[in-house]
Specification:
heterodimer, A: MetI-like fold, 0% strand, disordered C terminus, B: alpha+beta, Rossmann fold, OB fold (Dihydrolipoamide Acetyltransferase, E2P), 2 domains, 9 helices, 21 strands, 22% helix, 37% strand, globular
């Protein structure tokens, strides 16, 4: 059996980088969505949720168009890094972030909403500045939301296929992630290798979800 | 400490508008029915809500002035706040909650930072320090919340119905702690409540809000005698407050004898040492009137008084007679009797008479001591 573990490492790297960046970007977005009274909120919420309902190929297609070296975004990236966004690891990270955005933003938004304004006001009247309130009160109280967001974002990125295929193609060591590798093994009728990778992904995803639900029960964070 | 408040805050269907200058000392109560704007006023003072128009000056410091575009955020106002629901930080233990406040205290406010140890002693928190806040009883929670607010070393402490979620017993346990705060920590309190009994026990000054406006204001005894106070809560009955001192215990009959500006009053025994000041509340319907001391009657509490004013109902059967105790013009009583009685006794202002007090409500909470918390 010809089993190459390269795609596994690449996938784990991709998911880890994408989730870390997503938490950084998703936290302010989720915070804004949880607290805003702006009329634009439903609009932004809908945009955030789009990757849930769009076929990955649609998302991948538009990203491919945006990432193309001739397009403004693709050209800017090329000028900045000397590397194209299409068919590259960076492009995959960016695409994965968009693809997994709702899986990170929604749990965070829910957690911030559950914390509510109460503890934040209580901290403010004790003299805590807004950033202080965020880091020492809101975030610890929303810890479970962060955990859920990180795990779901990671697991969801592991399983992506359509977007990667459109944006990244199938370049060993750069864009060939597990799902693509499985597809290729099946195409070449190498079912044994496909089985190993598929079963591994299945077991891993299941374990991750059990972990999330288990931790949710074990760590009851009472907000309010 | 002087507090100038001029503000207008509008929600759909509600407007809070007031323009008052308060000389804060001790405990100032803000009373009003629900929806009268009490909490809204506190939130505006703390900077948690922004009124459309506001000018708030506390002790010379400008907290908000909408005309000048000044609106200090809550963390820069130096105003402490105790919420109705305590709002303790559930991710920290009791001590962690206290430390949170202590670390952020700004002694620049002119008030020296309250010492952690002193606050712990004052609110009896030593046994709770390592407890998770989720396991605390309602009364314990509010004690921690008050301690936490004090440790922020505020210039002014706002309390928003801190006892409303507690049962009567826990309320009684907490009142002495609150009563003692201004003297112990040198901070004036503004205490919001719709419970007349609480206000009667705690407050020095009272401000009554109704539909977003101040309808009465003044020293607690005089304000609570007014009909505006009665309107605050439907079940409240007109009455009066009397300040007395414990004189002695009459063990034979399980009574306590009080000195009421030179006159004697007895109560079922209370647990207090001679010399302890107590505040009594006498409902108007529990006071009868006689022109002379009455013998051969079961009512033992007979007080010499003088008629100040008679307010007769225009159509109803009753009249309220406002009395002042002999030799003590600030000690007042109200008697609710029929108009027929007023006529047949020939009552008129200035007339000396005897007030027969059928029942006195008294709270051990005024004793300054306290029961052990069993929570």
């Amino acid at each position: 059996m010809n089993l190459d573990l390269g795609p596994v490492w690449l996938t784990l790297q991709l998911a880890a980088v994408a989730v870390v960046l997503l938490l950084l970007v998703g936290t302010p977005l989720a915070w804004w969505l949880a607290h805003t009274r702006s009329r634009a909120k439903p609009l932004i919420e809908a945009i955030t949720a789009l990757p849930l309902v769009l076929p990955p190929t649609v998302l991948g297609f538009y990203l491919l168009v945006l990432f193309a070296p001739g397009a403004p975004l693709g050209a800017a990236w090329l000028g900045l890094t000397g590397e194209t966004l299409t068919f590259s690891f960076s492009g995959l990270v960016l695409a994965s972030m968009l693809y997994s955005l709702p899986f990170v933003v929604q749990p965070l938004q829910g957690a911030f909403e559950a914390v509510g304004r109460g503890p934040l006001e209580a901290a403010a009247v004790l003299g805590a500045r807004p950033l202080d309130v965020f880091f020492t009160v809101a975030s610890p109280l929303a810890a479970r939301g962060y955990l859920t967001a990180a795990v779901l974002g990671f697991a969801h990125t592991l399983g992506e296929f359509g977007v990667v295929l459109m944006v990244g193609g199938n370049i060993p060591g750069r864009t060939r992630v597990i799902s693509i590798a499985i597809y290729e093994q099946v195409e070449t009728l190498n079912f044994a290798a496909a089985h190993v990778l598929s079963a591994g992904l299945l077991a891993f995803s299941f374990a991750v979800l059990v972990l999330v639900y288990g931790l949710n029960r074990r760590f009851p964070v009472h907000a309010g | 400490m002087r507090l100038e408040i001029a503000l207008a805050l509008r929600y759909p269907g509600f407007t809070l508008e007031l323009d008052e200058t308060l000389d804060l000392a001790g405990i100032t109560a803000v009373m009003g029915a629900s929806g009268s704007g009490k909490s809204t006023l506190l939130r505006a003072l703390a900077g948690l809500d922004t009124p459309q128009r506001a000018r708030i000056v506390l002790d010379g410091a400008l907290l908000a002035d909408s005309a000048a575009g000044v609106n200090l955020p809550p963390h820069r106002r130096g105003v402490g706040y105790v919420f109705q629901d305590a709002r303790l930080f559930t991710h920290r233990r009791v001590l962690g909650n206290l430390r949170f406040a202590q670390q952020r205290a700004r002694p620049t406010n002119g008030t020296p930072a309250a010492a952690l140890d002193e606050v712990i002693v004052a609110l009896d928190l030593a046994p709770l320090l390592n407890r998770a806040v989720t396991g605390l009883s309602g009364g314990e929670r509010q004690r921690v919340a008050i301690a936490r607010a004090l440790l922020g070393s505020p210039r002014l402490l706002l309390l928003d119905e801190p006892l409303s979620a507690l049962d009567l017993k826990r309320k009684a346990e907490l009142l002495p702690y609150i009563r003692a705060l201004p003297a112990r920590f040198g901070i004036p309190l503004i205490y919001v409540s719709h419970a007349v009994e609480e206000v009667a026990q705690l407050a020095d000054e009272v401000l009554i809000l109704s539909a977003g406006r101040v309808v009465a204001r003044g020293e607690v005894h005089s304000v609570l005698e007014r009909p505006e106070a009665e309107a605050v809560s439907g079940h409240f009955e007109a009455g009066a407050l009397l300040d007395a001192t414990v004189r002695a215990s009459v063990d034979e009959f399980a009574l306590t004898e009080l000195d009421l500006s030179g006159q004697r009053l007895t109560l079922p025994r209370i647990d207090a040492a001679p010399g302890t000041p107590v505040r009594l509340r006498v409902r108007a319907r529990d006071v009868a009137i006689a022109l002379a001391r009455v013998e051969g009657v079961s009512i033992r509490n007979q007080l010499q008084a003088r008629v100040l004013r008679i307010d007769a109902e225009s159509a109803g059967a009753y009249a309220e007679v406002l009395l002042e105790l002999a030799g003590a013009p600030v000690q007042r009583l109200r008697a609710r009797i029929t108009r027929e009685s007023v006529a047949s006794l020939g009552l008129a202002a200035g007339q000396p008479l005897w007030a027969l007090v059928k029942s006195v409500s008294f709270d051990r909470r005024e004793l300054g001591g306290r029961d052990r918390n069993d929570g």
